[in-house]
Amino acid sequence: MSTHHPDEVLLMEYSAGTLSEPMALCMRMHLDRCSQCRGQLDMLNSLGAIMLDHSQQASRVSDDLFDNIVAQIDSEPAPREAETEKPSHDSPLERLLGSDLQELPWKRQLADVSVYDLSDRFPGDERVTLQKLCAGGRAPSHSHHGSEATLVLTGAFADANGVFSKGDFVILDHHHDHQPVALHGEDCITLSVMDAPVKLTGRLTRLLNPFIR
């Protein structure tokens, strides 16, 4: 079961259909594994439908509109507890790739890190990559010039923020300086969406910053 989740703002943007395609993909794949977030999304979708219904029935907002909306939400049956994980063959990422993750032509970036770039499959300027950290391996210490959304696909990694396992979702920005370490036993593969390059902060690796896009 996922222990790291997107916040309510991201769930609202996903419900409204305003996220970029790569971010929506990350959210969709997290939701496939997380019954907690699916329940929150169901509530947001119900709220949106109720508000749309009221907007069509009235030309102005009445004083008791909010109370009516809350009453209707409370009267909705609670979402059924669904399975924590849907079948892997239903993965939209695997349908996009047309290949198993392990069979991709991974490009070795650093000693323990390999990448597969998906950016050209999406519109916009975000960089979308699959990153593989070998079991027990360390990624370089880094921060971020912008934001990076990461979804764990296989394995797990740990950093100063905790342990992140399959299905976990996290967004980091310039306030975070971390060094992910893959747990032993299985390679950790993540899907990442970045709106700006990372910033290497290690004593030696920071010399590579001018060469990072």
Automatic annotation (TrEMBL):
InterPro entries, A to Z: Anti-sigma_ChrR, Anti_sigma_zinc_sf, ChrR-like_cupin_dom, RmlC-like_jellyroll, RmlC_Cupin_sf
Source organism, top-level taxon: Bacteria
Domain ChrR-like cupin: 100-191
Listed name of the protein: Anti-sigma factor
